[in-house]
């Protein structure tokens, strides 16, 4: 197996590594990776503890009835020859040759070989009949190991998937925020272009002076096509319930609102770009008034600047 395992490959092979089910080169590659990445020791310890508890996790299985019957029948068959072997010498006990010749009045001949040297029949072992087949236990343990490996692998992949989903959601959120920032910058750039055009090549330049309500106010309004740029100074801050409002005044009719300037108006360090409504293209004058918060459809408060 090639060297240089990835994180995902090691996490997939880790359960089999704990069970010792990998090839020799795979075991060596995983061990090398674990030595270089000590953060996986906790995961390795958890897998080993889970594997050690598999013997207790296997369900208790009762063998079928026919298995017990077959086992007992085998014990009876192997025990039957043993009982016959033990009882047969008692039924057929041979007469001692010496005693037989003495009773017949003959001198017993010396036998060439003693019949007592014959080895006694050995009892067959019945240990084999008492052996129990534990194959089903081994199969159950292997199945439990496989199930554990599958569960652990699925859990690892699920955690990895959740992490990736969280990372993707975070990146999407950052991308959305960047898009909003780009839109703001585009609007600011467009406003800067309009301001530059109004300053360098204006169609009209309208000076603003303060009224009796605010004699210290000074300003100027630059018009370029349907866009205007307002510069003004001397506007005093207003309470939260009021705001400054810009008006474009036609030769005849009611003044048309060109937007709210806020409580602080337009300071000397700021520039306000104004979109000129279509119905106010031929305006003749520009004015600023104090209105309630949210503005008014027509001027209701004092006029503080006019030009």
Brief characterization of the structure:
The protein is an alpha+beta fold. The chain contains 7 helices and 8 strands, in the order αααααααββββββββ.
Assembly context of the chains: single chain
Strands across the major sheet, in which order?
5-4-7-8-1-2-3-6
**The CATH class of the largest domain:** Mainly Beta
Strand content of the residues, in percent? 15-25%
Largest sheet: 8 strands, antiparallel
Share of helical residues: 40-55%
**CATH-defined fold name of the largest domain:** Immunoglobulin-like
Secondary structure tally, helices? 7
Structural class: alpha+beta
C-alpha Rg (nearest Å): 53 Å
Protein traits:
alpha+beta; 4 domains; transmembrane helix; RskA_C; 307 residues; 8 strands; eight-stranded antiparallel sheet; rod-shaped; single chain
Characterise the protein shown here.
- There is one protein chain.
- With 307 residues, the chain is an alpha+beta fold.
- It folds into four domains: 7-52, no CATH class; 65-130; 154-201; 204-306, Immunoglobulin-like (Sandwich).
- Helix content is 47%, strand content 17%.
- It is built from seven helices and eight strands.
- The chain has helices at residues 7-19, 24-36, 41-52, 54-57, 65-91, 97-104, 135-200; strands at residues 204-210, 218-224, 227-233, 242-249, 256-262, 272-275, 285-292, 303-306.
- It has an eight-stranded antiparallel sheet with strand order 5-4-7-8-1-2-3-6, covered by helices on one side.
- Helix 1 (7-19) packs across helix 2, helix 1 (7-19) runs parallel beside helix 3 and helix 1 runs antiparallel to helix 7 (135-200).
- It is rod-shaped.
């Amino acid at each position: 197996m090639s060297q240089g395992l990835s994180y995902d490959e090691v996490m997939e092979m880790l359960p089999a590594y704990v069970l010792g089910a990998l090839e020799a080169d795979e075991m060596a590659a995983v061990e090398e990776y674990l030595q270089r990445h000590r953060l996986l020791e906790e995961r390795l310890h958890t897998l080993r503890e889970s594997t050690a508890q598999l013997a207790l996790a296997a369900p208790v299985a009762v063998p079928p009835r026919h298995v017990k019957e077959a086992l007992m029948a085998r014990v009876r068959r192997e025990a039957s020859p043993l009982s016959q072997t033990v009882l047969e010498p008692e039924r057929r006990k041979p007469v001692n040759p010496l005693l037989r010749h003495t009773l017949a009045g003959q001198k017993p001949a010396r036998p060439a070989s003693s019949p007592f040297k014959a080895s006694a029949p050995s009892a067959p072992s019945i240990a084999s009949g008492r052996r129990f087949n534990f194959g089903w236990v081994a199969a159950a343990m292997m199945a439990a190991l496989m199930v554990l490996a599958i569960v652990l692998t699925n859990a690892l992949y699920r955690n990895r998937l959740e992490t990736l989903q969280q990372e993707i959601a975070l990146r999407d959120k950052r991308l959305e925020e960047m898009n909003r920032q780009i839109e703001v910058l585009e609007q600011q750039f467009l406003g800067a272009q309009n301001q530059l055009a109004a300053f360098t090549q204006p169609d009209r330049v309208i000076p603003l002076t303060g009224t009796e309500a605010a004699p210290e106010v000074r300003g100027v309004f630059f018009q370029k096509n349907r866009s205007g740029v307002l510069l003004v100074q001397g506007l005093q801050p207003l309470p939260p319930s009021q705001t400054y409002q810009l008006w474009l005044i036609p030769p005849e009719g009611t003044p048309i609102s060109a937007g709210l300037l806020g409580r602080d108006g337009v300071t000397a360090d700021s520039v306000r770009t104004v979109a000129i409504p279509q119905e106010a293209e031929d305006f003749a004058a520009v004015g600023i008034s104090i209105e309630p918060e949210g503005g008014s459809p027509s001027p209701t408060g004092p006029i503080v600047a006019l030009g």
